[in-house]
Amino acid sequence: MLALSWRLILHHCPSKCHTHLVPTLHDVAGGSLTTPDHEYPSYLELRLRAGDPGQLTDTKSDGLDPKTVSLTLDSSPVGFALVFKG
Asked: Does this model's pTM top 0.90?
């Protein structure tokens, strides 16, 4: 049986890049992941490690760039202070 191990790595690069590890998924052939919310600039790396009973392994990874959006915040009634992510 083929053993699969998925790892999602968040690369955060405000000035000096560093990584945040998201829990690894074992023995899962497919599905979906919920990505962590993190400030920009950042990107995700999805890494798959596959191994067989004969101890042969291979690892492949791919970068995932987040889609950014612009937000406009308004209060109702007008004049209330709004805070986002703070």
From this structure: no
